[in-house]
Amino acid sequence: MSAVAGRVAALHRYPVKSLAGEPVDALDCDHRGFAGDRLWSVRTRADKIGSGKNTRRFAAVEGLLHIRARLAGDRVELELPDGRRCFVDDPAAATWVSEHAGQPVTLAAESTVSHFDDGPASLLGLASVAALGAEAGVEIDPSRFRANILLEGTPALSEDKLIGQLLTIGTAVLEVTMRSTRCVMIDMSTADLPAQHGNLQAVGRMNEACLGVIARVVVPGRVSVGDAVQHLDG
User: Which of 31, 36, 53, 232 has the most crowded Cβ, counting Cβ within 10 A?
Assistant: First the structure.
């Protein structure tokens, strides 16, 4: 085992897909992914998953990134921009989110179909975000990319070289499976940030619209802020 020049700088989970999430000091993971991450989703009348984009599986729903979601014990709490709070399984939740979004929606817990886009864990180096900012000519907040694991001390775009490798982070082992393809959500306003148009175009120019990587969990465990990232030789 040899160390990758990097450590975990920050960790985030997103209890409801496409809603604002929360920073955490540690995350437990199993073969599904990180505990508490993307447990719920917003669903349209056509039963598509609410997102910032329109695809076969997803439907653009206005304003989701302005609603906060956090774990409160064993339940997921929502906070709307006007300060109202409720649990995701409360009768009021769908009504409030529908009013905010300007269309009727429901909230659904994950069942047999995963809420993840490409895989259960996402990693992104802070140096890659800085390089994108240099390309775009603006400072870009790393939280726009909604990664579970932010890495420090790694060269820009070096995550791409990890594809196919096994990484030990804390007590967990992850296999990096693919690059993370970006969409228009990285340009959108959020609960914490204004819209920043041009980010997606800059990713396209710099790295074929990809930034960061996706991984699957090989050995369940716990990942904590400050953990070293190591790769398994061979």
Answer: 36
